[in-house]
Amino acid sequence: MKNILIIGGSYFAGRVLVDNLVREGDYNIFVYNRGRVPLRLKEVTEIVGDRDDEARIRHAIPEKNWHGLVDFCAYTPDHIDKIIRSLPGTLNHYIYISTTTVYKNTWNLPIREESPRLSGIQPELGPYADYGYNKWLAEMKLNQVCEKRNIAFTSLRPSIIYGKYNYAPRESYFFDLIRDDKPVIIPDNELALFSFVWVEDVAKIIMGCIGNEKTFNQALNVSAEELVSYRRLVEVLEEISDKKLNIRKMKIRDINAQKIPLPFPLDAHLVYSGSKIKQLLQFDYTPFVDGMKKTYEYYQWLLERKQKLSD
Questions:
Q1: Which CATH number fits the domain that encloses residue 50?
Q2: What range defines the domain where residue 141 resides?
Q3: What DSSP string describes 208-236?
Q4: How many other CB atoms are found less than 10 A from the CB of residue 10?
Q5: Interhelix angle for 199-209 vs 12-24, to 10°?
Q6: Is residue 277 within 8 Å of 220, Cβ to Cβ?
Q7: What would the pLDDT profile of 171-205 be if each residue is shown by its tens digit?
Q8: Per the structure, how many domains does the chain have?
């Protein structure tokens, strides 16, 4: 049995990864986080602690030969440094879940791993101004520290993740509109294109990377090749819900003025290539319509469960 440590692991992609590792049955799974959302799985050892508390890391996490560490919640270089410096035992492979937000804006699309990265914060993003830049700094720290300590590393950069357990109001924003028979407003500019990746694919790719020398010491995009516009999204929503939606197109300035919370950019592309990791792992991404269908089915199951509990 291989020892796997997951930093985070209770939310969204981390939780889906844990579910998949449990089904695989080949791992001793340890999860370290603040304990706000307990997993309560008999196959998982949950350790409560703050990643900034180095003393807690040293005393709470057991000393083992860690086949892999998967880090979902490092947002600064200091987060990386503290874990590597404090982790008891030996570590063979550090997998860092980064983001495609580390890239500079460019019209040279799709954005690939060698595309230019950020060189500073992005004030135009307001409260998220330093998010992408700090993730890039964390990647560089990972490279530096792992090279010094002879630890293999992989940085994974997912595009827009959707699917089961998603706490961000992305696909659920539209599912709620369908549930309530409300109009779906989309921008009249149909040129904005987005890259998505299903959360189950993210989990499978992470598992394919753990201890895999083909992925060592690299940064890799995780993104399906399909390009999805708001109009294509509506087509998919109609197909998976088997409903004809009330679509209203609106000018971008009016959407902004009315503060309609559409979850994706209105007039900018988010287009990335995940072909490199696809080739390395011989992996096929799930078609967008198939992943969204599974996501919608889970959404409906949750609604029915809540209804039963309230009856």
A1: 3.40.50.720
A2: 2-162+198-223+273-286
A3: HHTT-GGGTTEEEEE--S--B-HHHHHHH
A4: 20
A5: 60
A6: yes
A7: 999 999 999 999 999 999 878 999 999 999 999 99
A8: 1
Is the Cβ–Cβ distance between 64 and 88 less than 8 Å?
yes
Please report whether residue 168 resides in a domain: no
Q: Please indicate, yes or no, if residue 143 is contained in any of the structural domains.
A: yes
Secondary structure of residue 293 in the 3-state scheme = helix
CA 263 → CA 47, 194, 197, distances in Å?
Answer: 34, 11, 15
Which residue, chain included where needed, has tokens 């961000």? 168
User: What values do phi and psi take at 218, rounded to 5?
Assistant: -140, 160
pTM of the model: 0.96
Return the structure tokens found at 279: 């080739």
Closest CA to 250 of 176, 166, 183, 189: 189
Instruction: Write the pLDDT tens digit of every residue in 39-90.
Output: 999 999 999 999 999 999 999 999 999 999 999 999 999 999 999 999 999 9
Terminal C-alpha separation, the chain: 44
